[in-house]
Task: structure prediction
Amino acid sequence: MNESALVKKLNKEEREKLREAVHDAWHISQNERSISREFVFKNYCNVISFFNAIAWITQKMNHHPDILVSFKKLTLSYTTHDVGGLSKLDFECIVQVDRL
Result:
């Protein structure tokens, strides 16, 4: 898929179709501009290990989410700022994260 197709803002139908293809724990925000998921771990070291895996994916995909790290939780939120909402690129990254 070419890069311009990945960074087009998705309409509601496109968003919902792609949302169905990812883990149920991902939630589209009320304003429909972002999608996020909370991950819970046994300890802080596991959180940081997961964070590092996400960092590798974000560099590879050149698309960087907002990440909130706490003691046993990590919240990941994707949006495409250039289009002011969700794009296919957000969902491509989510698919990679879901494989971890």
Notes: The chain has a mean pLDDT of 93. The first strand starts at residue 27 and ends at 28. Residues 44-61 form the longest helix (18 residues).
